[in-house]
Design goal:
The protein is mainly β. It has a single domain, classed as OB fold (Dihydrolipoamide Acetyltransferase, E2P). The chain contains 1 helix and 5 strands. The longest helix is centred in the C-terminal third of the chain and has 4 residues.
Length: about 90
């Protein structure tokens, strides 16, 4: 799973027919403290996430297992909206 922040949307008027009626979001992976990591990615939204929200993304074959995406050409899917992140550092 990838922890990410939604930073935008993608509008594609021409796309694979299996992706019609899907919302595409631009996400920026981040570490648990909120620091941006890696490169942007586009993910299909399965949970009605919005810009500014922290989300969980699955990629690869796991993305196609998300609701309604079994036979879709999808490599990343938003599968959860994060309410809170608690990071506990060890005392060493």
């Amino acid at each position: 799973m990838i922890l990410a922040k939604i930073v935008g949307t993608v509008v594609a008027t021409r796309k694979d027919e299996r992706l019609v009626s899907t919302k595409l979001l631009v996400a920026r992976p981040m570490d648990p403290r909120g620091k941006a990591e890696g490169t942007y990615l586009v993910a299909v939204d399965t949970v009605d996430a919005g810009v500014g929200e922290t989300v969980l993304i699955v990629s690869g074959s796991s993305a196609r297992m998300a609701a309604g995406l079994k036979d879709c050409p999808v490599d990343a899917a938003v599968v959860g909206i994060v309410d809170n992140i608690d990071v506990h550092e060890s005392g060493t």
